[in-house]
Amino acid sequence: MSHCKVPALIEAQVEMGSVNELEHKSLFRREEDVSTQAKAASLMEQGSLSPSFHEHATKSPKNSVVKSIKIVILSNKLNLLLPFGPLAILVHYMVDSKGWVFLLSLIGITPLAERLGYATEQLAFYTGPTVGGLLNATFGNVTELIISIFALKNGMIRVVQQTLLGSILSNMLLVLGCAFFCGGLVFHQKDQVFDKGIAVVNSGLLLMAVMGILFPAVLYYTHSEVHTGSSELALSRFSSCIMLIAYAAYLFFQLKSQSSSYSRLEEEANQNEEASGEDEDPEISKWEAIIWLSILTAWVSLLSGYLVDAIEGASVSWNIPIAFISVILLPIVGNAAEHAGAIMFAMKDKLDLSLGVAIGSSIQISMFVVPFCVVIGWMMGEQMDLNFQLFETAMLFITVIVVAFFLQEGTSNYFKGLMLILCYLIVAASFFVHEDPHQGLFV
């Protein structure tokens, strides 16, 4: 009996010792975790650390050059279209066919726009949700901005106006409509919900942008200018400066004053990802993402030059209005990244992120890219203004009103998405039969 009790006693002591040791270790671990969390919290308060620090800061991958190329270039099937870019340049120098150069350039830019979105998302892992959202909107619109600058350089003011207008219409109707439609089909048993307050603020900003674009057109068509030919341009430049100030205030509001609400949306998205067991770690490092963004932006810039040069020739050879090419075809390519991202988020029931992509991109184009192009044109000596002509301005005004009505309830379903897509088809058909009264590209 005693022999049996002694080993049992020893076993119990060993177990107690191991338990005490484990408790001792766990206490130290807790203290370390608490101190790490405290440091992270203080850094977050100072604005030097993103809320996703614990998830991503220690998981930065170290890829070789070959592996990085494989991840960014060879991992996506859409990149099969990349050779069309160099082919467009070859056709430009070997064959006198503007239509083919335009088509090949357009196809070649499509995967580049999508890869720009991918590289931006990878960079967003290291910047946090709010700055990441801003980066997504900025580099999502870099294609349109580059095309617009090249067109401005060539004096093609109407192409710039129509391309930017088309990008706003495409984001608000086609991108958001497809997101609502696909998300509604996946979650057909319920209405998807998004933050009504943020949607109302975004609708207000879009209406402000419409106001800035509407008044120069009204001034022109009512023939009520104090100085004919110059008052409209002066008003456009003044309004552009005001819109840039408003956009800067919006960024400050988003990044500082209301950062908690945007962080909350990202936290909810992260919880959904954890619940679904998805791996959302970055695939490339921060510097890899920055280098790829630089390379892709440079390649988009190169192709955009050939694309812009071929627009007029493509319109003649295909017998398609330049307005249709500028408003419909170019923005669909430029919005490839937003289109894919918004649909993906909606199908994961992250509708706030879908709205952030689609509406946020529209806000950035209307409140930043459009007035920025006016200022750039001012510096170049080009008379770029906010008079988008009556037909285009009316189209933008009605679109913003329709989208604002769809967003006011804070819910979405596949029917709302289908209605937005059908509205976009009406817009596309309207521009296909629309003859621009200002046919001259070089205004």
From TrEMBL:
GO molecular function ontology, one term from the record: calcium:proton antiporter activity
Pfam families: Na_Ca_ex (PF01699)
Alphabetical keyword list: Antiport, Calcium, Calcium transport, Ion transport, Membrane, Transmembrane, Transmembrane helix, Transport, Vacuole
Intracellular or extracellular location(s): Vacuole membrane
Coiled-coil ranges from the UniProt annotation: none
Domain Sodium/calcium exchanger membrane region: 100-255, 290-431
Keyword Transmembrane: yes
Chief site of localization: membrane
Superkingdom, taxonomy of origin: Eukaryota
Membrane topology of this protein: Multi-pass membrane protein
InterPro entries per record: CaH_exchang, CAX-like, NaCa_Exmemb, NCX_ion-bd_dom_sf
Spans through the membrane: 78-95, 130-152, 164-187, 199-222, 234-253, 289-308, 320-346, 353-380, 386-407, 414-433
Function: Vacuolar cation/proton exchanger (CAX). Translocates Ca(2+) and other metal ions into vacuoles using the proton gradient formed by H(+)-ATPase and H(+)-pyrophosphatase.
Family matches, as PANTHER family: VACUOLAR CALCIUM ION TRANSPORTER (PTHR31503), VACUOLAR CATION_PROTON EXCHANGER (PTHR31503:SF76)
Family stated for the protein in its record: Belongs to the Ca(2+):cation antiporter (CaCA) (TC 2.A.19) family. Cation/proton exchanger (CAX) subfamily.
Protein name: Vacuolar cation/proton exchanger
Organism of derivation: Brassica campestris
